[in-house]
Design brief:
The complex is a heterodimer of chains A (about 250) and B (about 450).
Chain A: E1 2-11, E2 14-24, E3 29-33, H1 40-48, E4 54-62, E5 65-66, H2 72-77, E6 80-83, E7 90-94, H3 95-109, H4 117-130, E8 141-142, H5 148-162, E9 166-170, H6 178-191, E10 197-202, E11 215-220, E12 223-228, H7 231-239, H8 242-249
Parallel strand pairs in A: 3-10, 3-11, 6-9, 9-10
Antiparallel strand pairs in A: 1-2, 1-4, 4-5, 7-8, 11-12
Helix pairs in contact in A: 5-6
Chain B: H1 3-17, H2 22-38, H3 54-57, H4 73-76, E1 87-92, E2 95-96, E3 109-112, H5 113-118, H6 123-129, H7 139-146, E4 152-156, E5 166-172, E6 179-181, E7 184-189, E8 194-203, E9 209-219, E10 224-232, E11 237-248, E12 252-261, E13 264-274, E14 279-288, E15 293-302, E16 308-317, E17 322-331, E18 339-348, E19 354-363, E20 369-377, H8 381-389, H9 394-410, H10 416-429
Parallel strand pairs in B: 1-5, 4-7, 5-8, 6-9, 7-9, 8-10, 9-11, 10-12, 11-13, 12-14, 13-15, 14-16, 15-17, 16-18, 17-19, 18-20
Antiparallel strand pairs in B: 1-2, 3-4
The chains are: A alpha/beta (about 250), B alpha/beta (about 450).
């Protein structure tokens, strides 16, 4: 699914990623953990194509195709989805209208007809039920005045609508209370299949109790310094990130 | 002959040709004298610092259209608010078109300034209201007063809620090589009355036009006035819009100005408070490109206690276009508990576009709430990335973001058909089809 090789990236001449290697196969869930400032959000942003970062070396392959030169929307059309840590507010554009535009632009790019209105409505109904979203919520301006939890739930709703091949959840657990966390995790788990993959980026182990990863990677100072199974997350929770830092600096 | 001389020379002939009473004659004569002394405004004046009329004034404008020009409805249908029944007061090259209009005297007056100015039955109203709030100092306003003859006359009696919006449209055919028109509108909205008005100036071909328009609006106690100005003209057209509004207690007046096209557009929008608990709203969206120029010059004169004013102007400038926002809020000593708000946000899409923004607050009362905010920026890159990440291409994402930027203004349009029309014009300006009705 996703194969990242020796990825180096910088912003304003400051190197943030210093040689990332990562293999994610279809059907897998990977967690990327690490202390603040390790480069976790940068990595997710770069996979999604944020043009503020410059990729100086390496490759990002999606299903065998190098996507590192593609625009963000082109990557989205190929099935990359990023759930934002800080979703942006768009006043005057309802959640429903935003999703219609998003879905139909994606279909257009893939040579498909626009989704018929009744099909769209059915999809919206189904996915809003999955995320336990009130229908009234869908006619509100996108993210405007939403609470932190509502924004995150709305991100996963959009993910459900778009049904991506590769979903990257960037700190989706932050700002969620325990009930919302369960709803969001349940949504993600229901969307998981043998054909797609999920990367969960998180600082804490909490979310991983609900979305159980197959692999856990520790990102520190722009590199993956440790990889393991789900038990690595527990170890990090127990020991904190200091032992990683000490190990690296030793 | 320069335009100023031409106008002064033609004043005598103009006065001889129209049948006016002595009072009106005196008003016009002192108005032309004021214009003669002051002339056209220049950049030397503080209030015209960023807008020069020099290049326009070089045109050899006809100041009186030669004949009655006819146009077919089908050719101008798109400039009307279709899908909804409206009263219409329509002018072609400054002359009333009965064919395109739909006026009334049934329970309210929606008709012509020329009849109001000359027919005896309107004399009392004209004496009470005409030229009472319009400036007697500002040169272009007095120029208009000197030639005031035709325009819309609207009088809504007490407690009348006008069900249909009123459209006032001034068409220029371009049959003249260059045309100057000076429409004069008088609008009186009685106690507890409610009216919605749409005003538009539209050229039909590329011959230069200069419109110097004056509108006086009187909102009596608890009257509600929703006024919309659509400025989406050709790039050969120039507009100086002078609007003066006098509000009595508890009245609510909102003016929305949509500036999407024209060569030079100057909006002088003035609100005067004459009672307590008045509410004034001034909102605008400007979206221009090429070398177009739009200047919003607003004044809210808070003279009485417990009144509110809300201003919100959004500007998007592309290419080498220039924008000006000068918002003056004046709070007199007596105007305690004033709540005055002013917001002006500008987006520059090109390195060559320029905005001059100048909030001016003069406050002489000590117990007031006044706030103003002004931003100038480019489109938010995070928001762009967010939308692109959801598969929306750059161009559409940009348009959606600009639409979102203007939504604080479009959201308060009270006529649904107009809201759709404005959204469509915005989408066209932004060059996109967003796939849903905004």
């Amino acid at each position: 699914m996703l194969s990242i090789k020796n990825l180096h990236a910088s912003i304003e001449d400051k190197e943030i990623l210093k040689g990332i290697n990562l293999e994610v196969k279809a059907g897998e869930v990977h967690a990327i953990m690490g202390p603040n400032g390790a480069g976790k959000s940068t990595l997710s942003s770069i996979i999604a194509g944020n043009e503020n970062y410059e990729v100086t070396q390496g490759e990002i392959n999606l299903e065998g195709e190098d996507i590192s030169e593609l625009a963000p929307e082109e990557r989205a059309h190929k099935g990359v989805f990023l759930s934002f840590q800080y979703p942006v507010e768009i006043p005057g554009v309802s959640v429903t209208n935003f999703m219609k535009t998003s879905i139909n632009e994606t279909r257009k790019a893939n040579g498909q007809e626009e989704m018929p209105a009744n099909e769209m409505l059915k999809l919206i109904r189904e996915k809003s039920e999955l995320l336990e979203i009130d229908r009234k919520f869908l006619s509100r301006s996108l993210n405007e005045g939403f609470s932190g939890g509502e924004k995150k739930r709305n991100e996963i709703f959009q993910m459900a609508m778009l049904n991506p091949k590769l979903a990257i959840l960037d700190e989706t657990d932050s700002g969620l209370d325990i009930d919302a966390l369960r709803i969001v995790a349940n949504g993600v788990n229901k969307l998981k299949s043998k054909d797609n993959a999920v990367i969960v980026i998180t600082h804490y182990q909490r979310l991983l109790e609900y979305i159980v990863p197959d692999f856990v990677h520790v990102l520190y100072d722009g590199k993956i310094v440790k990889s393991g199974g789900k038990e690595l997350a527990l170890e990090l929770e127990e020991k904190g990130y200091d032992w990683i830092k000490q190990e690296q600096e030793a | 002959m320069e335009l100023k001389e031409k106008l002064i020379a033609s004043f005598m002939a103009f006065e001889e040709n129209v049948d006016v009473n002595a009072d009106l004659h005196d008003i016009r004569t002192s108005a032309i004298k004021n214009f003669e002394t002051k002339g056209f405004p220049t950049k030397k004046e503080e209030s015209w610092k960023y807008t020069s009329l020099n290049t326009i004034l070089k045109n050899d404008f006809s100041v009186f259209p030669k004949k009655d020009n006819a146009i077919e409805f089908k050719d101008v249908k798109k400039f009307f608010l279709n899908d909804v029944d409206t009263y219409k007061v329509i002018f072609i090259d400054g002359i009333f078109s009965s064919y395109l209009s739909s006026t009334t005297h049934d329970g309210l007056d929606v008709c012509l300034m020329s009849s109001a100015l000359t027919k005896p039955k309107y004399k009392m109203i004209i004496d009470t209201f005409f030229n009472q709030v319009a400036s007697k100092e500002e040169s272009l306003t007095t120029l208009n007063t000197a030639f005031a003859n035709e325009g819309a006359y609207i009088n809504i009696p007490k407690s009348k809620v006008v069900e249909k919006p009123i459209e006032i449209i001034y068409f220029s055919t371009g049959n003249e090589a260059a045309l100057m028109v000076q429409p004069r509108n008088l609008i009186i909205v009685g106690e507890n009355a409610h009216v919605q008005i749409i005003e538009r100036h539209q050229s039909l071909n590329e011959n230069p036009v200069l419109t110097n328009s004056v509108t006086e609006i009187f909102a009596q106690k608890r009257a509600i006035v929703d006024y919309y100005k659509i400025q989406n003209d050709l790039q050969s057209s120039n507009l100086v819009d002078n609007t003066y509004i006098a509000q009595k207690q508890e009245s609510r007046v909102a003016v929305h100005t949509f500036s999407f096209g024209g060569n030079i557009t100057r909006n002088n929008l003035n609100f005067y408070h004459q009672g307590e608990r008045i509410d004034s709203t001034l909102k605008g969206i400007t979206i221009i490109g090429d070398k177009q120029h739009v200047d919003h010059y607003t004044l809210v004169q808070h003279a009485t206690p417990n009144c509110e004013s809300h201003q919100n102007y959004k500007t998007i400038l592309n290419d080498s276009s220039t924008g000006v926002f000068n918002g003056k809020i004046f709070v007199e000593k007596e105007a305690q508990k004033t709540d005055a708000f002013q917001q002006n946000n500008n987006i520059l899409l090109s390195d060559k576009a320029t905005i001059n923004a100048k909030p001016q607050l003069e406050i002489f009362a000590d117990d007031v709430k006044c706030s103003h905010g002004c931003t100038i920026g480019q489109l938010d890159e995070n928001a762009m990335f967010y939308m692109q990440q959801r598969g929306i291409p750059k161009k559409e994402a940009k348009a959606l973001l600009m639409y979102a930027f203007t939504s604080e203004v479009t959201s308060s349009i009270k006529i649904p058909e107009l809201k759709i029309k404005i959204a469509k014009i915005i989408a066209t300006k932004l060059g996109v089809n967003l796939g849903f009705d905004l």
